[in-house]
Design a protein that fits this description.
It is built from three helices and six strands. It is an alpha+beta fold. It is elongated, with a radius of gyration of 18 Å.
């Protein structure tokens, strides 16, 4: 079964020294090359990161016990992701926005990792499809709200104090120094 769920579309960048891997998918840094879509020049948003999470699973049933093997993949859609370099006059402004957008990608990465962890540990019965959907929706809603809170708190990167606080939070979570 293959399900595809669009992730959040958001806005900025953060630098880590190591690539992080958990449950088979590597964390990665975004670059300007990841933003190939045409900029939308309405409003004050200067960038957007488009991520989606696709999920498929194999079902193995035996004696009324259902074991599901999940394959959950995070994808950055470069054609739908954009960054308006014409409105970002200095290299430092571009770096700030890229930093913020990295935060949105990082949140999507956290969602993918939690889905993989929680679904892989769950026990399922013959209603596994509904159970998988319920778990997915619960986790997806949590991270959708986290993305909204991130943009609200940082004012789409314009609040540098809050942006710095979020960047530290992301780094702690990626290095395993805070609770999930």
């Amino acid at each position: 079964m293959l399900l595809k769920f669009p992730g959040l579309i958001c806005c900025l960048f953060f630098t880590f020294s190591n690539p992080f891997t958990a449950r088979g998918q590597s964390f990665r840094q975004l670059t300007l090359n990841d933003f190939q879509g045409p900029p939308r020049r309405s409003g004050d948003i200067v960038a957007e990161t488009a991520c989606s999470i696709s999920m498929k699973y194999d079902v193995h049933a035996r004696n009324g016990v259902y074991r599901l093997v999940f394959h959950i993949h995070l994808e950055l859609d470069k054609q739908r992701s954009w960054l308006d370099q014409e409105r970002l006059i200095t290299p430092s402004k571009i770096a700030e926005v890229l930093q913020h957008e990295q935060g949105h990608y990082t949140i999507s990465y956290f969602e993918q990792q939690e889905l993989q962890r929680v679904l892989s540990q769950a026990k399922f019965d013959r209603n596994y499809q509904a159970e998988v959907e319920q778990i997915f929706n619960r986790i997806h809603d949590k991270y959708e709200q986290l993305n909204l809170d991130y943009d609200d708190d940082t004012d789409h990167s314009r609040n540098s104090v809050q942006q710095s606080s979020w960047d530290k939070y992301f780094k702690r979570r990626l290095t395993g120094n805070s609770e999930q």
